[in-house]
Amino acid sequence: MPERNGKTTIVDVARAAGTSVSSASVALGGQPGVSEKTRAHIVETAKRLGYQPDQRASRLRRRRSRLLGVTFAAHQHFHAEVIENLYRSAEHRGYDLLLSATTQSRSARKAVESLLSDRCETLVLISPDIDESELEQLAERASVVTIGSHLRVPGVDSLHADDNQGVADVVDHLVGLGHSDIAYVDGGGTGEAAARREAYVASMRARGLDRHVRVLDGNPTEESGAEAATRLLESRKALPSAVFAHNDMIAFGLLLTLRSRGVAVPDEVSVVGYDNTRLAALTTVQMTTVSQDAAQLATAAVDRAIERTDNAPPAREIVSPARLVLRATTGPPRPLRDR
């Protein structure tokens, strides 16, 4: 009979099959030591009882866990796409992932500690909300690879999109359409957000648009986009002809709020996001955005994580292309007299 909590153990399998626990373990582990007839009988018994091996206990018995620990923000659409590709790349290399989410009430530090306690061989941090000092301290305790972060720390691989080029392409696109009053909604205090914010300011100044530089405080959520839109609509300053957001989620919040307040997009205000998530491609959204190659970032991250597990190679910064994706939320600005 299964143990009281309802989970079938290898002891239950051995008892039902009429064999020793060691024989059941050998048979289910695919190891030599029992006849094929006995192995088939034990495997069939395990299947009938619904036995599922305890993978964590199995890893603990091995010298190598072959686990990559991944931290991510639970509410971020792009992080989910990266994880999907991480699973694909890790499985191809014979590794598995252990995920640990950050939320409003669960810090990056807590997410990391959980992974370290589970013997993850290397940590993969997706856009970690930590500073350089914290990352340095973590690198002294574990092998670390970051995705999306622009922080450079000795011994830590940094993989991210070419945000300078991606942001510059957005500004060039909008200026080419005739926009000059282009506002930007920030993504918070992470290194990734700082890089995009600085790239926006530099791109505007490079095109002689210093007086139009306007950075609105924000964080990478839809609610932040809605709040930014409300502030713009209530401000005495004229509504900008275009708004560029740190990510698609902010841009989505902007888009919905502007439309709900009767502002036509893109006729009155153009909106641009970043990440090219599935949200941006929805037929009811069709948002102009910047694509990061999630598959390329994930594959490179798994490769570097495994290299860090096997030895200690010099840290690398790997930059993937950023590509502007044009959709329906950008267009030429209305003449001032019509706005």
UniProtKB/TrEMBL annotation:
Keywords: DNA-binding, Transcription, Transcription regulation. Gene3D superfamilies: 3.40.50.2300, lambda repressor-like DNA-binding domains. The keyword Transcription regulation applies. Pfam families: LacI (PF00356), Peripla_BP_3 (PF13377). InterPro entries: HTH_LacI, LacI/GalR-like_sensor, Lambda_DNA-bd_dom_sf, Peripla_BP_I. SUPFAM superfamilies: lambda repressor-like DNA-binding domains, Periplasmic binding protein-like I. Residues 8-62 form the HTH lacI-type domain. Coiled coil: none annotated. GO terms for molecular function: DNA binding. This is LacI family DNA-binding transcriptional regulator. It comes from Saccharopolyspora mangrovi. The lineage of its organism: Bacteria, Bacillati, Actinomycetota, Actinomycetes, Pseudonocardiales.
